[in-house]
Amino acid sequence: MHKLVTSIAALALAIPATAQEAQAPVTPGSVVASATPEEWLAIAPENLLVMELAPDAAGNPRTVIIQLIPAPFSQPWVANIRTLARAHWWDGTSVNRVQDNYVTQWGDVTEQKPLPEGVEAPQDSYVAAQARRVLAIPAHPGVARDSYAPGAVFFRGWPVAVDGGASTAWPIHCYGHVGVGRGYAPDTGSGAELYTIIGQPQRHMDRNLAVVGRVIEGMEHLSSLPRGSGELGFYTEEEAHLRVPILSVRLGSELDDAPAFEYLDTASESFARYVQVRANRDDAFYTVPAGGVDICSVQVPVRRVRG
Amino acid sequence: MHKLVTSIAALALAIPATAQEAQAPVTPGSVVASATPEEWLAIAPENLLVMELAPDAAGNPRTVIIQLIPAPFSQPWVANIRTLARAHWWDGTSVNRVQDNYVTQWGDVTEQKPLPEGVEAPQDSYVAAQARRVLAIPAHPGVARDSYAPGAVFFRGWPVAVDGGASTAWPIHCYGHVGVGRGYAPDTGSGAELYTIIGQPQRHMDRNLAVVGRVIEGMEHLSSLPRGSGELGFYTEEEAHLRVPILSVRLGSELDDAPAFEYLDTASESFARYVQVRANRDDAFYTVPAGGVDICSVQVPVRRVRG
Q1: pLDDT by residue (tens digit) across B262-288?
Q2: What is the pLDDT of residue B150?
Q3: If 0-12 CB within 10 Å is exposed, 13-18 middle and 19+ buried, where does residue B110 land?
Q4: CB under 8 Å to A15, separation ≥6 — which residues?
Q5: Who's near A134: CB < 8 A, 6+ residues apart?
Q6: Cβ neighbours of B13 in A, within 8 Å
Q7: Smallest Cβ distance to A284: which of B100, B185, B231?
Q8: Tell me: the pLDDT tens digits for A229-283?
Q9: Confidence check: pLDDT of B304 > 50
Q10: ipTM here
Q11: What whole-number distance in Å separates Cα of residue A173 and Cα of residue A161?
Q12: In the prediction, which pLDDT does A88 show?
């Protein structure tokens, strides 16, 4: 059994629920566990989207919770998404596409369902609409290099890429991030058709598609679905039974018994330490510290505090 | 329907089976489709591992095909894996762990099954055993920056990281890559317990765990399995029914009707173009070319030619 235990510990990514003992090696989990209460920030209820999928074959409920991205990023689409949720527009739609190592996508499979009044694809280009001037971005030396931008940092709880002068920033595609499906440019999508990344993030999508949120609970209900055999992973008509019905999508602010979540302040001391430790694992399992870390490998710690 | 068609085309990653028309935009798929026959190299049958999982609930067969990494990388573990396959050691074992955004892992759940003679964990450290001097690595300017190493290039069909002087290189963890489970260092694992990456690659595993191969067909049979609810995604005893039985694992060289595969020569002109186009998507869907590409976002094209 010893070997099983050590090999289980070996590949750990999960954040332990309890603080490590003082003698224990410093790990990302131990840093998060020792953060102070003031370092945790509440996620506003209007930035929570609660999606109830039909129960699985064994009757287990499948709830997916999405955190919407805060200002200044992608706000026209986020506003549309709130309108769609309040109109209960997604109720009765479905998950229609699961492409391995790419995306799971949901919305109205008929593409005929009328959108609520006021929900339109923004006319701004992505760069104009998404790249925003941000101030006082804290540096995270552990995130030293990015394949897709001169820099990559954390801003208001989100990983963003920044230009050379660090004067503008844009949201990026990481595992579990949610974006807006669309047709060919300059179409930018309304927000009614959404996808989430279920594999290696294809970062060339950054600035070309609107990132509007991330899955913070229930990701496995979207990532472990059978892959579609149609073009680009869409379920074919023969596979129509694989489309998972969406029972409801609600804003946290609409629900009496809404769950509540907090995220670790990305401007906090504990978060800075967390990034450093993620970049230089030197507990008993690792021989060679990486000396750096991909921005998408630093998941912002999120915890449920109610519901 | 037009919108559906365009939004389907929009998120395309798949490589089209047929060449694009001359007027069509240059895409990664069109570059691969126009590669010459000489640019495709055969994968040796002794570098193919054919794993038959038990059929799914609907009775559909589930075959996973793994390409083993060629010399000079990880050869002690690859030799062990060939011995294990020839001994039919994996027959009757199972998939025991599925951790979302991390790994699917298989092997002997009891950890009691005796290994064939000669199969032992190599005593070399990972750096000694895996980082190898390589010569004449072709440059791929599209892969300009890497978060985990001074450089990242392709060598004999595989993405590898290189040190500052490009004098040594080591294999890396990307989506679908297969590595060797182990306990705490200096244990390096025998190769009997294997995992594959099913999410954002955690590149800090590079040089700490032995990369021995990659899934080239049937990845969805490992990535879409239900996640385990035990620690680190292991299936609990209550979930024992979720462990997918492994019916057999065979080397391609053992099979009379072995499938045959080719990969696009990473030193070829077409591959260099493929990387460039991956780094600078400018077809109708994209507004902002990325100007670079993560090494793990450049999947080496592989095609089945028989079986």
Answers
A1: 999 999 999 999 998 988 887 788 888
A2: 82
A3: exposed
A4: A28, A29, A32, A33, A301
A5: A72, A155, A160, A162, A168, A169
A6: 99, 101-102, 202, 232
A7: B185
A8: 999 999 999 999 999 999 999 999 999 999 999 999 999 999 999 998 988 887 7
A9: yes
A10: 0.90
A11: 10
A12: 98
For B303, the 3-state DSSP assignment is strand
- Residue count of chain A, please give it: 307
Give dist(CA B200, CA A296) in Å, integer. Answer: 7
Q: How far is B287 from chain A (nearest CA, A)?
A: 6
Residues, chain B:
307
| A vs B: CB pairs below 8 A | 230
Paired strand residues for B162:
B151, B169
Mean pLDDT of B237-256: 97
Task: Give the CA distances from residue A112 to residues A178, B3, B4, B183, B247, in Å, rounded to whole numbers and listed in that order.
Answer: 22, 10, 10, 54, 46
Please, which residues bridge with residue B100 across strands?
none
Nearest to A202 among B176, B224, B297 (CB): B297
How does strand B40-42 pair with strand B211-217? unpaired
Instruction: For residue A303, list its beta bridge partners.
Output: A262
Structure tokens at B185: 């260092």
For residue B162, the surrounding DSSP H or E stretch is strand B158-162
Angstrom distance (rounded) from CA A22 to CA A34: 11
Compare all CA atoms of chain A with the CA of B204 and give the residue at the minimum distance: A290
> What is the rounded CA–CA span in Å between residue A52 and residue A50?
7
Sign of CA pseudo-dihedral A214, A220, A222, A223: positive
- pLDDT of A127: 61
